[in-house]
Amino acid sequence: MNEYLDLLDYRRTVAGIYAEVRASGPGPATWNRWRAHRDHLFANHPQTPIEDPATYEPLAYFEYHPSWRVEAAFKPIDASDVSVAHSSTGSTSFTKIGALHFELDGHDGALSVLWLNAYGGGIFVPFRDATNGTETYGGGRYILDTVKGADLGSTPSGLILDFNYAYHPSCVHSPRWSCPLAPPENRLDFRIEAGERLRTDNS
Known about the structure:
Number of strands: 9
Strand content: 25-35%
Distance between the termini: 35 Å
């Protein structure tokens, strides 16, 4: 198949996976199906972010816990354009439209919400935390990226943030990718022991 149609299929598949997550509701069974879908996609799809699918091993995660899911309140701001640096060369233009405020693991947290300045747009919420550089990628992880279909749903006052579904950008899996990184303002000063983590000898 044409590589562009392969990419369309990949994104359609990811969107379908997250639609299942929203329809099924929170819980370990839904999370485990999400993990299985991701492993199948990474191991088999022509658009896999993995450098060498022949050597693929299932992705590593922290253990699931329901306490990592929060309903974050969205507080709008006067929109401002920002340029988000990539892991390698380049940057991506976004508009900062507000922030998500929440309490998690006894900490108050806030993450800027970015809107992609490209055709169709979309919400992007990357984050950094105190696990970066050891258990997780130093450049942070993603929690929402609606352009790619990674959408956990909304509430009357904001958005769902379920950090059990946090995942690494594609540049973690292959140097051929250059991915937008979480800006410094989206660094949480506590540990997010949830979601995808780096593989160790014991995992």
